[in-house]
Amino acid sequence: MPATHSINKDNEFARCFECNKVPTMAPFHWLALAFKDIANAPLLSLVYGLIFTLIPAFIMWLVYQSGTHLVILPAAVAFALIGPAFAAGLYDVAWELEKGHKPTLSHSLKSMFRNPAGEWGFAVLLMVIMIVWMRLAALIHALYPNVPNPTFEQLSAFLALGSIVGGILLVCVFAISAFTPQIMMERRVDIMTAVISSMHAVKENVGAMVVWCGILVFMVMLGFATGTAGFIVIMPLLAYASWHGYIAVIKTKVPRHYE
């Protein structure tokens, strides 16, 4: 679904790319296109799917072996640092298919270094937010009633504050990460430009972004419900759909045709 495209280049640093407004149910169209991408590049999708499946499986194994949840934080921080790099490889596969090229593993691996400063900066940003999130969770846990079998009334303050803080952080993380990795990989811009553009696009497409966020949560829960085996398909599917969402939402100088 091509649209008129233009980019505001008044400022070279921390500028904001213009965006299109998409229908509320557009994310389901992105998923349909993602299924086509998997069908057109099944082997590469399987390779990256296995990588993304092994990571959460390893975290769950660490928790089981150690008998403590304390290993989740360092493992999750490590995932935040390497996850965006592998996601860039999947974006490259979808991008190559969009251009009518045959995607290859070597080409997708090279894409991880198209904007190393931006990609690592974004990974560090996610890591910092994650650490803050964990620390806030620890502080909020102090409100948990120190009594056996607490009632709902006793739990109300703990649940209310935890839900509010968690919801705010979730919205912030989603807004800054919805299109930031795709922008940085294709356009090689600074991290602030990518983050500001992503937040602006989310704000202008609240309906579609709520649907997309719901899809992400459901698919991740489905992945864990299958003992992480479902991530073999789920992660490539979501990455390809994210790329098509980026094409549909963020304006470019040249019309994009990806149907």
From TrEMBL:
<feature type="transmembrane region" description="Helical">
    <location>
        <begin position="231"/>
        <end position="250"/>
    </location>
</feature>
<feature type="transmembrane region" description="Helical">
    <location>
        <begin position="43"/>
        <end position="64"/>
    </location>
</feature>
<feature type="transmembrane region" description="Helical">
    <location>
        <begin position="70"/>
        <end position="91"/>
    </location>
</feature>
<dbReference type="InterPro" id="IPR018692">
    <property type="entry name" value="DUF2189"/>
</dbReference>
<keyword id="KW-0812">Transmembrane</keyword>
<feature type="transmembrane region" description="Helical">
    <location>
        <begin position="156"/>
        <end position="179"/>
    </location>
</feature>
<keyword id="KW-0472">Membrane</keyword>
<keyword id="KW-1133">Transmembrane helix</keyword>
<feature type="transmembrane region" description="Helical">
    <location>
        <begin position="120"/>
        <end position="144"/>
    </location>
</feature>
<feature type="transmembrane region" description="Helical">
    <location>
        <begin position="206"/>
        <end position="225"/>
    </location>
</feature>
<protein>
    <submittedName>
        <fullName>DUF2189 domain-containing protein</fullName>
    </submittedName>
</protein>
<dbReference type="Pfam" id="PF09955">
    <property type="entry name" value="DUF2189"/>
</dbReference>
